[in-house]
Specification:
The chain has 265 residues and is mostly helical. The chain has a single domain, classed as Four Helix Bundle (Hemerythrin (Met), subunit A) (Up-down Bundle). Helix content is 69%, strand content 5%. The chain contains 10 helices and 4 strands, in the order αααααβαααββααβ. The protein has a two-stranded antiparallel ribbon with strand order 1-2. A two-stranded antiparallel ribbon has the order 3-4. The chain is globular.
Length: 265
């Protein structure tokens, strides 16, 4: 009797580990889809917040999967499909309801091109992710879709923020920004992936403090913080390009592994 109890399991451990990160992914896509509903109701504040929450969940589900050893091919494909919705379709609809509808069919065409570029970027990522690990894993090819989805929302975020330094002609800036981000998505421009952050043990507490401070600023000065974060990310793109070029010249560093005194987040 006792042996039968030991053998009986409602759900295997492996299935449970796979289920947890996939649940996070599905919650993220539900939030991303909800942002379209908020934008349709002209509640653009909630639509932006929904995309930000979806981006945070997108950054967590993969790390949770690796942490609990619950990675799977289904989870990988599901993550890419949800990214197309949350950071491709949803931002396109939000900006179309806000400004792009004012330029007629061209505005809709721009939305279509952007979504297609997001899909192409994710398809290329899935193909390249099967390659052998190397120092190049610290870089993406092109701007990642979550970053692209947030960047195209920047004009709307700027209009809601207290940082009104310059007057912007949104009917011109929004289409141009969509085209630029679409090109960056499908480009092979190296950008930081932040998948592996090596931090000395004595600096871990400062990193945690900085993360808490940042999320505190997000809660209190939401739109101001998002605008500044977007500008910082744009400035990091050329930095990542030069860093990648330098590492590529000295490709011997690919064999260097983190030292034992470092914490890998």
């Amino acid at each position: 009797m006792e042996q039968n109890k030991k053998n009986f399991k409602l759900v295997s451990n492996k299935k449970t580990r796979i289920l947890l990160p996939n649940m996070f992914t599905l919650v993220g896509v539900c939030i991303g889809l909800s942002s379209i509903k908020f934008a349709f109701d002209e509640n653009f504040i909630l639509s932006i917040l929904a995309i930000i929450v979806a981006a945070i969940i997108d950054g967590l589900d993969g790390r949770i999967a690796r942490l609990v050893q619950g990675t799977s091919k289904v989870g990988k494909e599901l993550d890419s499909l949800t990214d197309v919705i949350s950071f491709g379709v949803a931002p396109a609809f939000i900006m179309y309801f806000w400004k792009l509808n004012e330029i007629g069919r061209v505005g809709w065409l721009i939305c279509l091109v952007y979504v297609i570029c997001v899909a192409l970027r994710l398809a290329r990522f899935n193909v390249n992710s099967d390659q052998a690990p190397s120092w190049k894993d610290n870089f993406f090819q092109g701007v990642p879709s979550p970053a692209g989805g947030v960047i195209v929302l920047m004009p709307l975020v700027y209009s809601l923020s207290d940082i009104q330094i310059i007057n912007i002609n949104y009917e011109v800036v929004v289409p141009i920004l969509f085209v630029i981000v679409s090109i960056l998505l499908i480009s092979k421009l190296p950008t930081y992936s932040f998948k592996k952050i090596s931090v000395p043990r004595n600096m871990t507490i400062f990193l945690l403090f900085g993360m808490v401070l940042y999320f505190g600023l997000i809660l209190i000065y939401t739109f101001n913080t998002i605008v500044i974060s977007g500008l910082i990310y744009f400035l990091m793109i050329p930095i990542s390009l030069f860093h990648y070029a330098n590492l590529n010249k000295n490709s011997k560093v690919q064999d260097i592994t983190p030292e034992e005194h470092e914490d890998i987040l």
